[in-house]
Amino acid sequence: DDAKSSKVQNSGKKTKVKDPNEPKRPLNAYRLFVRDVRAKVEKENPKLSKKEVGLEIAAIWKVTGENEKKPYTDEAKETLKKFETEMEAYRQVLL
Question: Which of 10, 21, 62, 72 could pair with 29 in a Cys bridge, judged by C-beta atoms 3.0 to 4.6 Å apart?
């Protein structure tokens, strides 16, 4: 049994066991944006709940122009390429 195909019982459902050595998926452009602006939004609006902060960030993202999104999309593309390379190497190890 390799770790990739192992199954575990979890309240009647079968779920895959996550290999701790498997590379983690990278953040997409929106998640990178959230990482950068969440603290600022929370500081400016201390009375907002977590859900409301998320909605505020989503609204900001929606009106953000492509030029301002470009650093996030570029970083997301770079990290995705790195992830794909790491996954290819990881799959080779499994063979």
Answer: 72
Q: In the predicted model, what is the mean pLDDT of the chain?
A: 90
Per the listing, tokens 């602006």 go with 37
**CA 64 to the chain's CA centroid:** 20
Q: For 11-30, how does the pLDDT look when each residue is reduced to its tens digit (9 = 90+)?
A: 667 788 888 889 999 999 99
Please report where in the chains the tokens 């996030």 appear, as a residue.
72
Residue 1 in 3-state DSSP? Answer: coil
SS (H, E, C) 18-83: CCCCCCCCCCCHHHHHHHHHHHHHHHHCCCCCHHHHHHHHHHHHHHCCHHHHHHHHHHHHHHHHHH
User: 3, 5, 59: which is closest to 33 by C-alpha?
Assistant: 59
